[in-house]
Amino acid sequence: MNLPGKRINRGFSMIELLVAVLVMGIGVLGVTGLQMVSLQNNRDALLRTEALQMAYDILDRIRVNPGAGVAGADYDGIGFDDSPSAPSDCVANNCSAAQIAAFDVAMWQCALGGHNEDDVCVDLRDDELLPEITAQPGLPDGVGQIAVDGAGAITVSVRWSGFGDVQQTINLDSQG
After folding, report:
1. Which helix (H) or strand (E) holds 160?
2. How many domains, in total, are found in the chain?
3. Rounded to a whole number, what is the distance in angstroms from the first to the last CA of the chain?
4. Distant-in-sequence, close-in-space partners of 163: CB < 8 Å, separation ≥ 6
5. How many angstroms separate the Cα of 175 from the Cα of each of 77, 101, 152, 155?
6. What does pLDDT average to over the chain?
7. Is residue 52 part of a domain?
8. Predicted confidence band of residue 173 (pLDDT cuts 50, 70, 90)
9. Percent of the chain residues topping a pLDDT of 70
10. Is the pTM of the predicted complex or chain greater than 0.85?
11. CA distance 148 to 73
């Protein structure tokens, strides 16, 4: 029974409903933002792992082919801006240590991803020495650098474009 002048609340008011929707919306936006940051961090970690793997790959190639004199000297002087040079096909032919070094460097530079459109890399893919280009071969704008000092210390650097086109670089130092 309702008494005159007494109001009975039944359900929610419109203001309460709007506040609840606002709080839920802010919560969903926060979770979405966290998800985006997580995806970006996972992508960066994947690219860094791939860069490390490629740096270790060329270090292993250098160790296998020490050449004459200082270990790794045939690999010295490769810069970030250098394009791969046309190597001899050392898979089908016998090659000298210097030819194997040129072959290794060209394969490595093409695998890094920054030279995918260069004629040398296209030829290596046509000869099936490198895998065919799929979605994103190598690193985004991936390039590498190799330096060997007189004592045989080898420094391999790999650079690529990370999230927001920020340049990322890793350096590995090793004794040849």
Report:
1. strand 153-161
2. 1
3. 95
4. 40, 43, 44
5. 16, 17, 6, 9
6. 86
7. yes
8. very high
9. 88
10. no
11. 6
* CA atoms of 111 and 83, how far apart (whole Å): 12
Q: In the beta sheet, which residues pair with residue 146?
A: 78, 156
Write the CA distances from 39 to 14, 19, 42, 44, 163, integer angstroms: 37, 30, 5, 9, 11
User: Is 114 among the domain residues?
Assistant: yes
Q: Residue 138 — left, alpha, or beta (φ > 0 → left; ψ -120 to 50 → alpha)?
A: left
pLDDT, tens digit, 9 for 90 and up, residues 58-93: 999 888 887 766 677 888 889 999 988 888 888 888
Residue 4 has which token pair?
Answer: 């005159």
Residue 59 counted as domain residue? yes
Give φ, ψ of 61 to 5 degrees. -65, -40
* Residue 137 near residue 101, CB atoms below 8 Å: no
Look up residue 85 and give its two tokens: 């040079």
Q: How many CB atoms lie within 10 A of CB 34?
A: 10
Please give the structure tokens belonging to residue 81: 């801006």
Is residue 8 domain-resident?
no
- At residue 117, what is the residue type? E
* Consecutive H or E run containing 125: helix 119-126
